[in-house]
Amino acid sequence: MCAAIAIPSQTDDFPAWYGEVVRRAELAENSPVRGAMIIKPYGYAIWETIQRELDNRIKATGHENLYFPLLQPASILAREGALVEGFAPEVAVVTEAGGKTLEEPLAVRPTSEALIWSTYGRWIQSYRDLPLLYNQWANVVRWELRPRLFLRTTEFLWQEGHTAHETREQAVAEALTILHEVYADTVETVLAMPVLRGRKSPGERFPGAEETYTLEALMRDGKALQAATSHYLGQGFPRTYDVRYTGRDGSDRYPYATSWGATTRLVGGVVMTHGDDRGLRLPPRLAPHQAVIVPIPSHDDRAGILETAAAVAEALRATGVRVRIDDRAEHRPGFKFNEWELKGVPVRIEIGGRDLAAGAVTVVRRDTGAKQQLAVPGAAAVIGEMLDAVQSSLFASAVEERERRTLRDPRGYDEMIEFLRGAGGFVEAPWCGRLECEERVKEQSSATIRCLPLDERSAPPGCACICCGRPAVTTAVWAQAY
């Protein structure tokens, strides 16, 4: 790691900044396969926390985990026309194995609706079998043309839930429960990433979905990131795969379906939401190390300083803080300070000769750079409160940044397009609901409708579409996106 070499600034070259932070913070690197990444231990530790927090919430809402194979017969995927059409350019197909041409090609999982619903037909016979509330943790492959570490990769890790219900109302409630109680709660309370909750326009929906609900976050370069999606699929997949059950009245019925997923792109979202020109700034609830202790010993006080470091670490662990002592003799304190700043550790604790003499430690917050000396007795409690403050501060800062970059009710179409072309951030404006207007904005600015906010489904009476002047039916949020 070359911690002493400056990172490109966000304002000068945000993509270069992002790539350098991901590489030098040791989150991930490119593999020999174009578009596929090697997730390094520090990056994987962040993903493990996201995974654990999501998994806990998924199970708390009554779901169970299972696993389906990576490979599926191409004929099964082909039966779902909308899904195939939506993913066709990204699907990888295995045609040879064991030195022989396969009798039937195998599709490498781009998503699992087709395989799972072809299986659910054997599992659902009666209304008594419903609901099916299942989730799997897996990898998927989508042949990405313009890959970027974490944000768009040929192979990525995710979870995908697939559920079956008796009624439309139950399925819609399921999709919204996952959006709010699983995804939004994790992303906002753990990742400290504020998100807009909304539904996708028809042109942006998941292939085969009747409604796609989404969380949209805004990055520090003014582009949006889709943080997670939850889909109400209706009866399309059950009908395609002839999944029927005997209803309460004895008649044959098709169940109603949902699917939902969140991926390793959330790691990239954390980098771009909170990072600064010195590297990462990790929310404490997400950070692999919430605090790092850097002893600064001299020959005379080495034993005392290391003993104090161990005692402080023990006191912090007793309160549930994830802490590491960095006593590597081969690196000077300045190198360690730079390294842990780059890696975004929320709190750094320094213990030098003066601290030892004062019976204290020096504590530095990564988010603000604020430094203070704390008496060793009671330091653990104060640091715990400090970590809560860092968590709240990062979220508040991200909300403030999003608000600063949100243009509401622009004076006209030209102002909106100019703002979007420069990746200024979110634009909220009335929309008539016509695909022609949506495509016109995309063609002229590279921006898409990120969501139709759930708390604002109808435009105020008398509002005109920002694009064409026709009566507006809803408020839309536009932005360029990753």
Molecular structure report:
It contains 14 helices and 23 strands. It has 482 residues and is α+β, with helices and mostly antiparallel strands. The protein has 3 domains: 14-274, BirA Bifunctional Protein, domain 2 (2-Layer Sandwich); 291-386, Anticodon-binding domain (Rossmann fold, 3-Layer(aba) Sandwich); 406-479, Translation Initiation Factor IF3 (2-Layer Sandwich), CATH 3.30.110.30. It has an 11-stranded mixed sheet with strand order 3-7-8-14-11-10-9-22-23-21-20. It has a 5-stranded mixed sheet with strand order 16-15-17-18-19, sandwiched between helices. Helix 2 crosses helix 6 (168-189). The chain is globular, with a radius of gyration of 25 Å. The mean pLDDT is 95.
Short key terms for the protein model shown above:
single chain; 482 residues; alpha+beta; BirA Bifunctional Protein, domain 2; Rossmann fold; Translation Initiation Factor IF3; 3 domains; 11-stranded mixed β-sheet; 5-stranded mixed β-sheet; globular
Which secondary structure elements does this structure contain, and how are they paired or packed?
Layout: H1 14-24, E1 28-30, E2 37-39, H2 41-60, E3 64-65, E4 71-73, H3 74-79, H4 81-87, E5 93-97, E6 100-108, H5 113-123, E7 132-141, E8 155-165, H6 168-189, E9 196-199, E10 211-218, E11 224-234, H7 236-240, E12 245-246, E13 252-253, E14 256-263, H8 265-274, E15 291-295, H9 302-318, E16 323-325, H10 333-342, E17 347-351, H11 353-358, E18 360-365, E19 371-375, H12 379-404, E20 406-408, H13 413-421, E21 426-431, H14 435-445, E22 448-453, E23 474-479
Helix pairs in contact: 2-6
